[in-house]
Amino acid sequence: MKRISLTQYLVEEQRLNNNIPAELRLLIEVVARACKTISHAVGKGALGEVLGSAETENIQGEVQKKLDILSNEILLEANEWGGHLAAMASEEMESIHLIPNRYPKGEYMLLFDPLDGSSNIDVNVTIGTIFSVIKAPEGMATPTEQDFLQAGSKQVAAGYAIYGPQTMFVLTTGQGVNCFTLDREMGSWVLTQRNMTIPEDTQEYAINASNSRHWYPPVTRYIDELLAGTTGPRGKNFNMRWIAAMVTDVHRILNRGGIFMYPADAREPDKAGKLRLMYEANPMSMLIEQAGGASTNGKQRILDIQPEKLHQRVAVFLGSKNEVERVTSYHLEK
Ligand code: AFP
Q: What pTM value is reported for the model?
């Protein structure tokens, strides 16, 4: 099969579906180029003096890794000058980032988790970059945090880069999910998987089982049934994977199905969960739904949630449709 580049894919997609105007194409290509730079830095590891802690904390109160900060700066610098953005927001920054006055402003707003899976960085386990694209509200003057608080269903594009044995860029603009592999010799993103689709059933689940004594009953019931395998109500055996980097668990699920769960639990009853809605759960939920899967917070579709805070957390159950619907139904039972 003749392979095409990300640029050719975007140009042909615009011709076919008229859903990638020039400014959005520029945005996606700039983000993809920044992810190439991040991949290069990540790949250097200790040789690039980029491992270890930065001795600073982010808004979540989490100690930042040097690569967290470097990846954030790479994305900010890559996206400031193009004239396609009005503002940006990042897991690593407390407030939104306005485009400097010396540059023109655009109609899009970009949110990202510059490096997801930080706890994996220093032990050479796969990590990634997650991004979400929304439109600036009509007639917006100077962007505020409020302008970012749009439901995930309003996203015009979403995707991630994954820095593993291959470096890949997975993208949706609302017409399915496509995957590009980085050709390191040419420095180009090459389309290697079209229209990724998630099987509606699965025999593989992902959850951090060390938290099981803190789970609420619907999760405990669901997991116990999986563990019972052929001897229990599910009548089949299940396998478990937990990579501790959402990007990597989601990438596996996009390729072979599965269900990923990060539930709220009794450790902190007023905390909705660990993952963030705006730049982790929303972009991943758009990708999962575009690939035929489902994504809820246990009670409702994640893409329907009306955000109240930029860094708000959410419980996540996403992946193979029939499994997500089952565990969600357990939460909704009286
Ligand atoms: P870090 O970026 O702090 O490593 O967290 C990664 C993450 O947000 C998500 O990518 C993982 O699925 C999840 O947290 C892992 O959480 P646990 O370390 O509690 O298993």
A: 0.97
